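Sharing a chain and its predicted structure for anyone who wants a worked example. Both blocks are below, sequence first, tokens second.
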Amino acid sequence: MKMYKTIDLCAGIGGIRRGYELAGCFKNVLSAEIDKNACLTYEHLYGENPMNDITTEEFKAKVEATDYDILLAGFPCQAFSRAGKKAGFEDKIRGTLFFDIAEIIRRTRPKAFMLENVDNLVTHDKGHTFATIIEVLVKDLNYKVVGVTLGDDGALIYEPRKFIRNSRNFGVPQNRPRVYIMGFNREHFGSAVDNLPNELPKERKNPIYTDLNDLLEMDADDKYFLSSGYVETLERHKARHEGKGNGFGYKIVNLPEIEHPVSNAILATGGSGKERNLVIDPKAGVAGKVIGSKQTPLNDRGIRMMTPREWGKLQGFINYAFIDKKTGEDKFSFPEKLADGPKYKQLGNAVTIPAVEEMAKFMKKWLTELDKT
């Protein structure tokens, strides 16, 4: 079987890389990440430190000197300046990480790429951001982007919403819509790229969990239970927003009346990601307990935050992506001294590995077809 070499940009803790490795014919040869804690976890998992800055000429030269086939990147959503009609693509996107990714694609011409982003990308700046990205990839860089066709007049035809995929359809109980953009090098493969399907995979056939109840680990450590004072603050905050007709406020996601509970998106910002994903845990002896780190006794309803382990399961890192096929042992772990804060941040920033794995299988299938032509 042919192995394709990948590079992993804005790598975080390597979720995109891992999804591709699981698809079976991708081997990573270079990575880039600048968050120190994320680099520690990445090195702990893969045995290599990805500390590289994609905005530097030094790194771009390193990519040029690297023999690779596929560029992978999960990049942040940033606004582009509204450059005039005659502006070159560099001027349209300058000052953003997408500029650096596009520049690397232009200079190294990989066979294919996959980019991942938040779902707001399609509506960001009234759609201008997404339209610019697609135009740069298709027209300036000459890639066939899955889901984009050219009209007779050369106009780009596509539906932005069709680039969104939700993690909950890929085997994990998390409502996490994300944008996936996949492109194939028209220069390299020729007109055969026009035979590609017009949409990326929409689901995974065999779910990993039936719902959230299947994934939660009850009797969690006391430190994850909210203090009674904190619960009261959240109640007041919620009432205030409801009075204004807003849907903000905390959410308990596994209430008994919910038939098949699903979590909300877990977020790197911590607070909102955690407070919109509270769970009831019937652990005995918690109500009214006084523990050192909290100013008031623990609440009497069993309300707690999800643990980093549970977040790890929601993203497919724990109990899935690192299981040793021979022994059945889960090889995923964080560096020993890493605090919970960075764990939540890293998992909230990460991709859902089972969703990426389906994208990787799609890419594997079509690269194999295109390489025959």
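Comments welcome. The two ends are 17 Å apart (CA to CA).
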